[in-house]
Amino acid sequence: MPNRQNLLDSTSGHLLGDISSSATSARVVTDDGTWPATFPFYVTLGESTTHREIVRVDAIVGDQHTIVRGQLGTSGIVHPEAEPYVLGVNREDISRLLAHLEAAAGGGAHPDLATHDALGLATDAELTAHAGTSHGVTDHGLLTGLGDDDHPQYETSAEAAAKVTAHEAAGDPHPTYHTAAEVAGDIGTHAALPNSHHPQAHAIGGADHTGTLAHTALSSVTADQHHTQAHTDTDHTSASRVTVRKNSGADVGTRPRLNLIEGTNVTLTVADDAGGGEVDVTIAAAGGGGGGTTGTADLDFGAFPGKSDASVDVTGQTSIVAGSIVQAWIRPVATADHTADEHLVEELQVIAGNIVAGTGFTIYGVHSPATNEPLTEDRDRVRAPAGGYGTRLYGVWKVAWRWS
Fold it and tell me: Are the beta carbons of 314 and 361 closer than 8 angstroms?
């Protein structure tokens, strides 16, 4: 006979870590006993707690158990680390199993079979025969409280057939739709009136528009409303041209474009003013008459005793040409070396020349007195007379210039 105490010994352990409500594996530390080697079997998670769950164990590898959650009427829930993990067989289950085994070992009749016969339950053969027969009521009218036509919202076959027959007998069963003959007649009438259908869809300039139409007669258009249209130069062969004349005299020509040419001492600056809808032309003239381009410069004769001539270059004159007229003169304005009065009385000749087109010119200054330095005589020995070198100027003198 089996050892009752061995069967009562259970296998238990605890979780090595938390598991979620849907986890399909768990790491288990075995605390007591040995887990079965035949699968599947059932264990209880959280036994004797409010979060008790029964799971099915399908495999064990090391401490890793493969489980199926929420068995035997329980649901998958979250379990914390160290949650009890116990083989799902209690003492009551073991007692019933031992009683069953002991009865079989004593040679007596199986209690379950005896109860089955005493109750007169059907055998396997009787159940098989029963499955092949028809059971229950098959006639709708025989059901308690129902008649043969207990669904009046549905038509019977006879009612539907009668309506189909009546529909076929009608000459025009769908009066809301046109027959083929009616459609053909409409098309014929439509084709006979080419200018009466779709009056809003005529091409501008077509034969349908032989007269004129007032702007205000158009829908959603005001009297002075205009429409932007993109045109090319070829669209305006005459209307967009400009006529040019000189000094209000005869017309010189009419062209789409006007060309401005810079003359001598004339500078043109042309800019497109898109915001103002115009092209701006600025004309600057240099020279001519009493005008011209003017400026000042410094003639530097150096430190005392100085020298008899000096020069200064005037640059930055981009419009000057080889044929321009240049002039220079003394300007009576005080400098660091000489007063304005000295400028008035000094015999200093100023000349401008050496024009470089597009760059500038040179101003020359020469001290012009006719007197020479006095001759000197060496009293101790005889030598040739000395002197006659002319006088000198020193320092900075102010000059003015003009060219045209």
Answer: yes
Flag whether pLDDT at 137 surpasses 50: yes
Residue 210 in tokens? 């032989």
Q: Which of 63, 97, 131 is the last residue of a domain?
A: 97
Considering the entire predicted model, what is its pTM? 0.30
Rg for the chain (alpha carbons), in Å? Answer: 64
- Joined together, the tokens standing for residue 234 give 């070829």
SS3 content of the chain, % helix, strand, coil (to 5): 20, 30, 50
Assess if residue 313 is contained within a domain.
Answer: yes
For 236-258, what is the mean pLDDT? 74
Q: Pick the last residue of a domain from 65, 80, 97.
A: 97
pLDDT at 234: 52
Name 53's Cβ contacts closer than 8 Å, sequence gap at least 6. Answer: 44, 45, 46, 69, 70, 74, 75, 76, 77, 79
pLDDT of residue 310: 94
Q: Is the pLDDT of residue 388 over 50?
A: no
- Return the percentage of the chain with pLDDT > 90, whole number: 38
212 belongs to a structural domain: no
d(C-alpha 331, C-alpha 338), whole Å: 12
Domain around 343: 293-403
Contacts of residue 325, defined as CB under 8 A and 6 or more positions apart, other chains included, come to 287, 292, 403, 404
Q: How confident is the model at residue 1 (pLDDT cuts 50, 70, 90)?
A: very low
| Whole-number Å distance between alpha carbons of 166 and 171 | 10
What CATH number does residue 319 fall under? 2.60.40
Question: What average pLDDT does this structure show over 386-396?
Answer: 72
| Number of domains observed in the structure of the chain | 2
Q: Which helix (H) or strand (E) holds 124?
A: helix 124-131
pLDDT tens sequence across 86-126: 996 655 555 545 665 565 555 544 445 544 444 344 455 65
Residue 189 lies in a domain: no
| Residues 298, 397 contacting (CB under 8 angstroms) | yes
Domain containing 73 — which CATH number? 2.40.10
d(CA 146, CA 125): 37
Q: Considering the domain boundaries, does residue 231 fall inside one?
A: no
DSSP annotation of 202: P
